[in-house]
From TrEMBL:
Membrane-crossing segments per the record: none
Record keywords, A-Z: NAD, Oxidoreductase, Tricarboxylic acid cycle
Protein's GO biological process: malate metabolic process; tricarboxylic acid cycle
EC number(s) per entry: 1.1.1.37
Organism whose genome encodes this protein: Leifsonia soli
Name by which UniProt lists this protein: Malate dehydrogenase
Active site (record annotation): 187 (proton acceptor)
Record's catalysed reaction(s): (S)-malate + NAD(+) = oxaloacetate + NADH + H(+)
Residues that coordinate or bind NAD(+): 11-17, 105, 112, 129-131
Domain Lactate/malate dehydrogenase N-terminal residue range list: 6-145
GO molecular function, one term: L-malate dehydrogenase (NAD+) activity
Function: Catalyzes the reversible oxidation of malate to oxaloacetate.
Amino acid sequence: STPPVNVTVTGAGGQIGYALLFRIASGQLLGRETPVRLRLLEIPPGLRAAEGTALELEDGAYPLLHGIDVTDDARAAFDGVNIALLVGARPRGPGMERSDLLEANGAIFGPQGEAINAGAADDVRVLVVGNPANTNALIASAHAPDISAERFTAMTRLDHNRAVAQLARHLHVPVRAIDGVVIWGNHSASQYPDITHATVDGRPVTDLVDERWLTDEFIPRVAKRGAEIIDVRGSSSAASAASAAIDHIHDWVNGTGERWTSAAIVSDGSYGVPEGLVSSFPVRSVDGAWRIVPGLAIDAFSRERIDASVAELVAERDAVRALGLL
Ligand code: NAX
Protein backbone atom coordinates (compact mmCIF):
# COMPACT_ATOMS: atom_id res chain seq x y z
CA SER A 1 0.00 0.00 0.00
CA THR A 2 1.05 3.63 -0.59
CA PRO A 3 3.07 5.15 2.28
CA PRO A 4 1.48 8.21 3.86
CA VAL A 5 2.41 11.64 2.53
CA ASN A 6 3.47 14.18 5.17
CA VAL A 7 1.41 17.35 4.84
CA THR A 8 2.21 20.31 7.11
CA VAL A 9 -0.24 23.18 7.48
CA THR A 10 0.80 26.36 9.28
CA GLY A 11 -1.79 28.69 10.77
CA ALA A 12 -3.85 25.55 11.23
CA GLY A 13 -5.96 27.13 13.97
CA GLY A 14 -7.16 29.91 11.66
CA GLN A 15 -10.13 30.12 9.35
CA ILE A 16 -8.41 28.92 6.16
CA GLY A 17 -6.91 26.05 8.15
CA TYR A 18 -10.39 25.06 9.29
CA ALA A 19 -11.67 24.99 5.72
CA LEU A 20 -8.58 23.25 4.37
CA LEU A 21 -7.75 20.42 6.74
CA PHE A 22 -10.93 18.39 6.33
CA ARG A 23 -10.57 18.41 2.57
CA ILE A 24 -7.00 17.16 2.85
CA ALA A 25 -8.06 14.43 5.29
CA SER A 26 -10.85 13.31 2.97
CA GLY A 27 -8.48 12.78 0.05
CA GLN A 28 -9.25 15.83 -2.07
CA LEU A 29 -5.65 17.03 -2.07
CA LEU A 30 -3.82 13.91 -3.18
CA GLY A 31 -6.55 11.52 -4.25
CA ARG A 32 -8.53 8.76 -2.61
CA GLU A 33 -5.69 6.26 -2.77
CA THR A 34 -3.10 8.32 -0.90
CA PRO A 35 -2.96 8.31 2.90
CA VAL A 36 -1.79 11.49 4.63
CA ARG A 37 -0.16 12.36 7.91
CA LEU A 38 -1.03 15.88 9.04
CA ARG A 39 1.24 18.19 11.01
CA LEU A 40 -0.39 21.38 12.26
CA LEU A 41 1.95 24.26 13.10
CA GLU A 42 0.71 27.17 15.19
CA ILE A 43 2.04 29.85 17.47
CA PRO A 44 1.08 29.49 21.16
CA PRO A 45 -2.05 31.69 20.99
CA GLY A 46 -3.37 29.52 18.15
CA LEU A 47 -2.50 26.12 19.58
CA ARG A 48 -5.80 25.47 21.39
CA ALA A 49 -7.79 26.21 18.24
CA ALA A 50 -5.53 23.90 16.24
CA GLU A 51 -5.90 21.19 18.88
CA GLY A 52 -9.67 21.58 18.66
CA THR A 53 -9.52 21.19 14.90
CA ALA A 54 -7.37 18.08 15.39
CA LEU A 55 -10.08 16.61 17.66
CA GLU A 56 -12.67 17.21 14.96
CA LEU A 57 -10.40 15.69 12.33
CA GLU A 58 -10.19 12.60 14.50
CA ASP A 59 -13.99 12.57 14.72
CA GLY A 60 -14.19 12.51 10.93
CA ALA A 61 -12.79 8.95 11.07
CA TYR A 62 -11.14 9.55 7.71
CA PRO A 63 -9.76 6.27 6.38
CA LEU A 64 -6.86 8.11 4.69
CA LEU A 65 -5.78 10.05 7.77
CA HIS A 66 -2.83 8.26 9.35
CA GLY A 67 -2.09 10.67 12.19
CA ILE A 68 -2.28 14.28 13.33
CA ASP A 69 0.31 16.18 15.31
CA VAL A 70 -0.11 19.70 16.63
CA THR A 71 3.01 21.68 17.47
CA ASP A 72 4.50 25.14 17.81
CA ASP A 73 7.95 23.84 16.86
CA ALA A 74 8.75 24.48 13.19
CA ARG A 75 11.55 21.88 13.12
CA ALA A 76 9.18 19.16 14.31
CA ALA A 77 6.44 20.34 11.96
CA PHE A 78 8.58 20.21 8.81
CA ASP A 79 10.61 17.08 9.55
CA GLY A 80 10.11 14.80 6.54
CA VAL A 81 7.53 17.13 5.01
CA ASN A 82 6.39 16.39 1.45
CA ILE A 83 3.80 19.14 1.14
CA ALA A 84 4.00 22.38 3.12
CA LEU A 85 1.05 24.75 3.10
CA LEU A 86 2.24 27.98 4.70
CA VAL A 87 -1.01 29.68 5.65
CA GLY A 88 -0.16 31.37 8.95
CA ALA A 89 1.14 34.91 8.60
CA ARG A 90 1.14 38.18 10.45
CA PRO A 91 -1.77 40.35 9.35
CA ARG A 92 -1.38 44.10 9.05
CA GLY A 93 -2.36 45.67 12.37
CA PRO A 94 -3.44 49.25 13.05
CA GLY A 95 -0.67 51.76 12.44
CA MET A 96 1.58 49.15 10.86
CA GLU A 97 3.68 50.41 7.95
CA ARG A 98 4.36 48.21 4.94
CA SER A 99 7.96 47.72 6.03
CA ASP A 100 6.74 46.62 9.51
CA LEU A 101 4.52 44.06 7.82
CA LEU A 102 7.35 42.75 5.65
CA GLU A 103 9.65 42.57 8.66
CA ALA A 104 7.11 40.76 10.85
CA ASN A 105 6.54 38.21 8.11
CA GLY A 106 10.25 37.86 7.46
CA ALA A 107 10.53 36.78 11.09
CA ILE A 108 8.04 33.98 10.32
CA PHE A 109 9.03 32.84 6.84
CA GLY A 110 12.82 33.00 7.34
CA PRO A 111 12.85 30.48 10.21
CA GLN A 112 10.22 28.33 8.48
CA GLY A 113 12.41 28.25 5.36
CA GLU A 114 15.33 27.14 7.53
CA ALA A 115 13.25 24.41 9.15
CA ILE A 116 12.10 23.20 5.72
CA ASN A 117 15.70 23.23 4.52
CA ALA A 118 16.75 21.17 7.54
CA GLY A 119 14.09 18.51 7.45
CA ALA A 120 12.05 18.36 4.26
CA ALA A 121 11.79 15.31 2.02
CA ASP A 122 13.53 15.48 -1.36
CA ASP A 123 10.27 15.95 -3.20
CA VAL A 124 9.00 18.78 -0.98
CA ARG A 125 6.47 21.18 -2.47
CA VAL A 126 5.81 24.47 -0.71
CA LEU A 127 2.77 26.70 -1.23
CA VAL A 128 2.68 30.05 0.54
CA VAL A 129 -0.83 31.37 1.14
CA GLY A 130 -0.10 33.83 3.96
CA ASN A 131 0.33 37.41 2.80
CA PRO A 132 2.31 39.08 1.35
CA ALA A 133 2.44 35.64 -0.26
CA ASN A 134 4.90 36.19 -3.13
CA THR A 135 7.50 37.89 -0.99
CA ASN A 136 7.00 35.46 1.90
CA ALA A 137 7.76 32.64 -0.55
CA LEU A 138 10.88 34.48 -1.70
CA ILE A 139 12.06 34.84 1.91
CA ALA A 140 11.38 31.17 2.75
CA SER A 141 13.21 30.04 -0.38
CA ALA A 142 16.20 32.27 0.39
CA HIS A 143 16.49 30.52 3.76
CA ALA A 144 16.42 27.07 2.16
CA PRO A 145 19.60 27.06 0.07
CA ASP A 146 19.64 23.27 -0.34
CA ILE A 147 16.20 23.16 -1.91
CA SER A 148 15.55 24.20 -5.49
CA ALA A 149 13.76 27.56 -5.68
CA GLU A 150 11.24 25.91 -8.03
CA ARG A 151 9.82 24.10 -5.00
CA PHE A 152 8.68 27.36 -3.38
CA THR A 153 5.48 28.79 -4.80
CA ALA A 154 2.84 31.33 -3.77
CA MET A 155 -0.87 31.22 -4.32
CA THR A 156 -2.59 33.18 -7.08
CA ARG A 157 -4.97 30.32 -7.84
CA LEU A 158 -7.77 32.01 -5.92
CA ASP A 159 -7.39 35.07 -8.17
CA HIS A 160 -7.30 32.76 -11.19
CA ASN A 161 -10.43 30.93 -10.11
CA ARG A 162 -12.18 34.23 -9.45
CA ALA A 163 -11.28 35.44 -12.94
CA VAL A 164 -12.52 32.25 -14.60
CA ALA A 165 -15.76 32.36 -12.61
CA GLN A 166 -16.43 36.02 -13.46
CA LEU A 167 -15.81 35.35 -17.13
CA ALA A 168 -18.03 32.28 -17.18
CA ARG A 169 -20.80 34.24 -15.48
CA HIS A 170 -20.52 37.16 -17.89
CA LEU A 171 -20.56 34.92 -20.96
CA HIS A 172 -23.19 32.50 -19.61
CA VAL A 173 -20.95 29.51 -20.20
CA PRO A 174 -19.81 26.75 -17.87
CA VAL A 175 -16.50 27.31 -16.09
CA ARG A 176 -15.16 24.20 -17.80
CA ALA A 177 -15.48 25.81 -21.25
CA ILE A 178 -12.89 28.47 -20.38
CA ASP A 179 -9.14 28.11 -20.76
CA GLY A 180 -6.15 30.42 -21.13
CA VAL A 181 -6.90 32.92 -18.35
CA VAL A 182 -3.76 34.30 -16.68
CA ILE A 183 -3.03 36.12 -13.44
CA TRP A 184 0.26 37.98 -13.76
CA GLY A 185 2.43 39.47 -11.03
CA ASN A 186 1.73 39.94 -7.35
CA HIS A 187 -1.13 38.54 -5.26
CA SER A 188 -2.25 42.06 -4.42
CA ALA A 189 -4.49 44.72 -5.90
CA SER A 190 -1.80 45.33 -8.56
CA GLN A 191 -2.27 41.85 -10.07
CA TYR A 192 -3.23 41.69 -13.74
CA PRO A 193 -6.01 39.27 -14.68
CA ASP A 194 -5.39 38.77 -18.42
CA ILE A 195 -7.98 37.36 -20.80
CA THR A 196 -6.23 38.23 -24.06
CA HIS A 197 -5.23 34.56 -24.53
CA ALA A 198 -8.42 33.10 -23.11
CA THR A 199 -10.80 30.94 -25.08
CA VAL A 200 -14.34 29.65 -24.67
CA ASP A 201 -14.65 26.24 -26.27
CA GLY A 202 -11.67 27.25 -28.39
CA ARG A 203 -13.05 30.68 -29.46
CA PRO A 204 -11.09 33.78 -28.42
CA VAL A 205 -12.74 35.54 -25.50
CA THR A 206 -11.65 38.91 -26.89
CA ASP A 207 -14.22 38.43 -29.69
CA LEU A 208 -16.95 38.04 -27.09
CA VAL A 209 -16.39 40.83 -24.53
CA ASP A 210 -16.11 44.57 -24.98
CA GLU A 211 -13.17 46.56 -23.78
CA ARG A 212 -15.17 48.70 -21.33
CA TRP A 213 -16.37 45.64 -19.47
CA LEU A 214 -12.81 44.36 -19.37
CA THR A 215 -11.19 47.50 -17.97
CA ASP A 216 -14.04 48.95 -15.88
CA GLU A 217 -15.61 45.81 -14.47
CA PHE A 218 -13.67 42.60 -14.89
CA ILE A 219 -10.14 43.63 -13.91
CA PRO A 220 -11.09 45.67 -10.82
CA ARG A 221 -13.70 43.09 -9.75
CA VAL A 222 -11.14 40.28 -9.72
CA ALA A 223 -8.40 42.39 -8.14
CA LYS A 224 -10.74 43.67 -5.40
CA ARG A 225 -12.77 40.52 -4.86
CA GLY A 226 -11.08 39.91 -1.50
CA ALA A 227 -12.42 43.25 -0.23
CA GLU A 228 -15.88 42.46 -1.62
CA ILE A 229 -15.94 39.17 0.31
CA ILE A 230 -14.94 40.95 3.53
CA ASP A 231 -17.67 43.53 2.97
CA VAL A 232 -20.43 40.99 2.32
CA ARG A 233 -19.36 38.09 4.52
CA GLY A 234 -17.92 40.07 7.40
CA SER A 235 -14.62 38.20 7.30
CA SER A 236 -12.03 37.38 4.68
CA SER A 237 -12.22 34.61 2.09
CA ALA A 238 -11.53 31.28 3.73
CA ALA A 239 -13.25 28.33 2.04
CA SER A 240 -12.51 29.69 -1.43
CA ALA A 241 -8.87 30.24 -0.45
CA ALA A 242 -8.67 26.69 0.92
CA SER A 243 -10.23 25.39 -2.29
CA ALA A 244 -7.66 27.24 -4.40
CA ALA A 245 -4.82 25.84 -2.28
CA ILE A 246 -6.18 22.33 -2.91
CA ASP A 247 -6.37 23.07 -6.65
CA HIS A 248 -2.79 24.40 -6.73
CA ILE A 249 -1.22 21.37 -5.03
CA HIS A 250 -3.50 18.88 -6.78
CA ASP A 251 -2.49 20.24 -10.19
CA TRP A 252 1.18 20.49 -9.25
CA VAL A 253 1.25 16.82 -8.24
CA ASN A 254 -1.07 15.41 -10.88
CA GLY A 255 -0.42 17.67 -13.87
CA THR A 256 -2.68 20.00 -15.82
CA GLY A 257 -2.54 18.35 -19.24
CA GLU A 258 -2.78 20.94 -21.98
CA ARG A 259 -4.89 23.35 -19.90
CA TRP A 260 -3.30 26.28 -18.10
CA THR A 261 -3.64 27.76 -14.72
CA SER A 262 -1.86 30.50 -12.78
CA ALA A 263 0.70 30.13 -10.03
CA ALA A 264 3.33 32.38 -8.52
CA ILE A 265 6.64 30.62 -9.15
CA VAL A 266 10.26 31.68 -9.32
CA SER A 267 10.91 33.63 -12.51
CA ASP A 268 13.44 32.35 -15.04
CA GLY A 269 13.36 35.79 -16.69
CA SER A 270 10.39 34.95 -18.93
CA TYR A 271 8.15 37.80 -20.08
CA GLY A 272 10.55 40.41 -18.76
CA VAL A 273 10.01 39.40 -15.13
CA PRO A 274 13.40 39.65 -13.36
CA GLU A 275 14.92 36.27 -12.66
CA GLY A 276 14.48 35.09 -9.08
CA LEU A 277 11.28 36.99 -8.28
CA VAL A 278 8.28 34.91 -7.24
CA SER A 279 5.67 36.15 -9.67
CA SER A 280 2.43 34.81 -11.09
CA PHE A 281 2.61 33.34 -14.59
CA PRO A 282 0.54 31.24 -16.94
CA VAL A 283 1.66 27.71 -16.10
CA ARG A 284 1.17 24.06 -16.90
CA SER A 285 2.24 21.30 -14.57
CA VAL A 286 4.23 18.64 -16.41
CA ASP A 287 5.92 15.63 -14.80
CA GLY A 288 5.42 17.11 -11.34
CA ALA A 289 6.94 20.52 -12.11
CA TRP A 290 5.44 23.90 -13.02
CA ARG A 291 6.36 25.12 -16.50
CA ILE A 292 5.72 28.67 -17.68
CA VAL A 293 3.61 28.70 -20.86
CA PRO A 294 6.09 30.08 -23.41
CA GLY A 295 5.81 32.39 -26.37
CA LEU A 296 2.64 34.35 -25.67
CA ALA A 297 2.32 37.67 -27.48
CA ILE A 298 1.98 40.49 -24.94
CA ASP A 299 0.13 43.56 -26.18
CA ALA A 300 0.84 47.10 -24.95
CA PHE A 301 -2.15 47.13 -22.56
CA SER A 302 -0.98 43.90 -20.93
CA ARG A 303 2.67 44.96 -20.89
CA GLU A 304 1.91 48.05 -18.87
CA ARG A 305 -0.10 46.14 -16.28
CA ILE A 306 2.37 43.27 -15.95
CA ASP A 307 5.20 45.75 -15.51
CA ALA A 308 3.30 47.67 -12.81
CA SER A 309 2.65 44.56 -10.73
CA VAL A 310 6.20 43.29 -11.21
CA ALA A 311 7.53 46.71 -10.13
CA GLU A 312 5.64 46.23 -6.85
CA LEU A 313 7.31 42.83 -6.40
CA VAL A 314 10.72 44.37 -7.07
CA ALA A 315 9.99 47.04 -4.43
CA GLU A 316 8.97 44.37 -1.90
CA ARG A 317 12.10 42.36 -2.66
CA ASP A 318 14.30 45.44 -2.28
CA ALA A 319 12.59 46.30 1.01
CA VAL A 320 13.11 42.84 2.53
CA ARG A 321 16.68 42.80 1.22
CA ALA A 322 17.32 46.15 2.95
CA LEU A 323 15.91 44.62 6.15
CA GLY A 324 18.45 41.79 5.83
CA LEU A 325 15.71 39.20 5.31
CA LEU A 326 17.07 37.70 2.09
P1 NAX B 1 -6.49 33.67 10.48
O1 NAX B 1 -6.07 34.89 11.22
O2 NAX B 1 -7.87 33.11 10.68
O3 NAX B 1 -5.47 32.49 10.80
C1 NAX B 1 -4.09 32.65 10.73
C2 NAX B 1 -3.49 31.72 11.75
O4 NAX B 1 -2.07 31.73 11.57
C3 NAX B 1 -3.75 32.11 13.20
O5 NAX B 1 -4.34 31.00 13.88
C4 NAX B 1 -2.37 32.43 13.75
O6 NAX B 1 -2.20 32.05 15.10
C5 NAX B 1 -1.48 31.61 12.83
N1 NAX B 1 -0.08 32.03 12.76
C6 NAX B 1 0.43 33.29 12.81
N2 NAX B 1 1.77 33.26 12.78
C7 NAX B 1 2.14 31.97 12.69
C8 NAX B 1 3.39 31.30 12.63
N3 NAX B 1 4.52 31.97 12.72
N4 NAX B 1 3.38 29.96 12.53
C9 NAX B 1 2.23 29.27 12.51
N5 NAX B 1 1.02 29.84 12.58
C10 NAX B 1 0.97 31.17 12.67
O7 NAX B 1 -6.22 34.00 8.94
P2 NAX B 1 -6.79 33.25 7.63
O8 NAX B 1 -8.07 33.89 7.24
O9 NAX B 1 -6.74 31.79 7.86
O10 NAX B 1 -5.70 33.72 6.55
C11 NAX B 1 -4.38 33.27 6.60
C12 NAX B 1 -3.52 34.04 5.61
O11 NAX B 1 -3.96 33.82 4.28
C13 NAX B 1 -3.51 35.54 5.79
O12 NAX B 1 -2.16 36.00 5.70
C14 NAX B 1 -4.30 36.04 4.61
O13 NAX B 1 -3.93 37.35 4.24
C15 NAX B 1 -3.92 35.04 3.57
N6 NAX B 1 -4.79 34.92 2.38
C16 NAX B 1 -4.17 34.70 1.19
C17 NAX B 1 -4.90 34.49 0.02
C18 NAX B 1 -4.22 34.22 -1.27
O14 NAX B 1 -4.92 34.16 -2.27
N7 NAX B 1 -2.90 34.05 -1.36
C19 NAX B 1 -6.38 34.58 0.04
C20 NAX B 1 -6.97 34.39 1.39
C21 NAX B 1 -6.22 35.00 2.52
O15 NAX B 1 -6.57 36.36 2.59
